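FORM 7B: Structural annotation worksheet

SECTION A. Query
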Amino acid sequence: MILLQTKSGDQASNQFIRWLKTSCIRINCDQTILEKVTWDSKRDNVSFKVEDVTKPISLKDISFYFRRGGKLSFKIENSVFDGEFKAQEEFLKHNLNKKTNLLGRHLSTNKLLNLLIASKIGFIIPDTFLSISPKFYINYFKKKNYYYFSSGTVKYDYNNNNHELIHSLIQKEIDKKFEVRTLAFKNKTFSMAIFSQQNTKTKLDYRNYPKIPNRYIPFKLPDNIENKLFKFMYLTGLDFGSFDFIVNLNSDFVFLEVNPVGQFDWLNRRCNYYIYKAIIESYIK
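SECTION B. Predicted structure
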């Protein structure tokens, strides 16, 4: 049995199922709830039941578990039992994570820790500053009107801006030749160069999608960068991730971040890769 844990509308999940030549149980965690978790200690078997799947799913029957996102959780209506239900959710997650044929062990990571680890193993990272203390912004909110904004990456000019920064991760802007998006799993990498620097809308962040698309081409990471990437994955416990790099004007690779459930269908299509085929051949016998 192949189990796909994901969310509705995830294009990578849709395409993965189309490439499969066998049946698959897909659980859209944003559309269903966990109904029951059972454990038979004598038989060493854990199973669970979700709302829109007829039969309970035994973990022993799962030959490949692909986790693309979402959380298997109960719909808790009585707070008296919150602790009991959360304990069962954690118990199920723990046992699913023990599956040896699992892709997507981590659904989230800590960006600050990732930057620290990346710098320790030899990646160049942007000059990074973290601001400000919790005590400061709690007091700030009490005294002033405020707003929160997030649009990928935004530019802040110290010389021409009177706004005080509230709990911000600040990184020095890097002049770039191009950006690189890399999907990595099981000692495989699939990379794409993104020429975003000549478009004013995407010069700072390629995710500010323009009306006229940027140029995208298949790309091969240098061996030393690829080796550092796999060392980073080993140290962080990642088995799957979408990495973002900037190549600066000196042709140095600058590590920006990794998303363990990043979208990769667009990379697959733009570069004519066979990523889904590679996943299936690597994990499904």
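SECTION C. Observations
The chain has three domains: 2-103, 111-126+174-283, 128-171. The CA atoms of residues 121 and 231 lie 8 Å apart.

SECTION D. Sign-off
Analyst initials: ____
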